[in-house]
Amino acid sequence: MEARRNPDYLKALASAVAEFRDAFDDLLELYVENGEAGGLGGFARGIAPAVLLREGSDPREVARRQARVSRAAGRAAAAVPLTQVAVAVQGAGVVDPIANWQTVTRPKPLLEAVDVFGACDQALGRLDGLILQAEAERPPSVGAEAMHPVVWGAASRLWRDRHFREAVAAAAEAVVLLVKTRTGRNDVADTALWQEAFSDKDPVPGKPRLRWPGNPANRDVSSMNGGLRFYAPGVQMTIRNSVAHGAGQLDEQNAVERLAALSLLARWVDECDLVEAPAGPGEAN
User: pLDDT (tens digit, 9 = 90+) per residue, 132-149?
Assistant: First the structure.
């Protein structure tokens, strides 16, 4: 996701700007504005620093606070190009007020303290607007924890330890166990089990079928039953078999997409009706 469209990133950046502003304000407690320090400001404006060190300030404390401002400026640096907040300075052009905060304390300063504070406040306002926009445009997100309980219950511990392939494999095994429990089948290989469970043939004793609820003549019901005949064994072959027998690790995005496919299958298994044949002889599958 593009940074300017990510609310979490924008909030973190706004927090960094606020931290920089607080650190800069804290540093200026050790200074006085040029003009309050005995008349220098009258004729030396633009030559002498915009702020002058307060008499009696501890150099070590000054250094500590300056270091804090510098670190905060580094964290907040992306705010200026993102919000397009800058200060136009005659003879110098457009100046980044966060990157150039130190000029306030140096001869021939490019900026006044008020410029830095004003730019920070404006950047924070623009970031607030960007956050509102990003949150309004952000697509709905669903975490892995919202998956079918059978899927997440099997995958959660491994997932949190970032063992994504193993988490998907455990979830796939749990979904197979789900259909085995629903159908009472333990006598056939897993892929064949899915094929038989969703077969369009009538159930026979010992071989029940899973059917989408509703009138089988209904086009939507018929479509679901037909789709499940392919989707269920397809998930088994493309997801369960590949993670069980493949090598290497899955990244989080690929893993969560596989979990979603398994979760959807598990929900459909839950929603299906179990159709059993009456007791007695029946034809083979």
Answer: 998 887 766 566 777 898
Beta-bridged to residue 204, according to DSSP, are 207
Give the gyration radius of the chain's Cα atoms. Answer: 33
Range list of H helices, 138-218: 149-160, 164-183, 190-197
Q: Give 185's Cβ-side CA count (13 Å radius).
A: 27
Q: Quick one: pLDDT at residue 230?
A: 94
Cα 279 to Cα 206: distance, rounded to the nearest angstrom: 9
Q: What share of the chain is helix, strand, coil (3-state, %, to 5)?
A: 60, 5, 30
Instruction: State how far the Cα of 97 lies from the Cα of 93, in Å rounded to an integer.
Output: 12
Place of tokens 């964290």: 75
Q: What is the pLDDT of residues 16-69, one digit of tens each?
A: 999 999 999 999 999 998 875 444 444 466 688 889 999 999 999 999 999 999
What phi and psi, each to the nearest 5 degrees, are found at residue 177?
A: -60, -35
Q: Of 24, 98, 108, 103, whose CA–CA distance to 66 is shortest?
A: 24
Whole-angstrom distance, CA of residue 159 vs CA of residue 171:
10
Which residues in the chain show pLDDT less than 70?
1-3, 36-46, 139-143, 245-248, 279-285
For 3, the token pair is: 């940074």
Q: What angle do CA 155, 246, 192 make, to 5 degrees?
A: 75
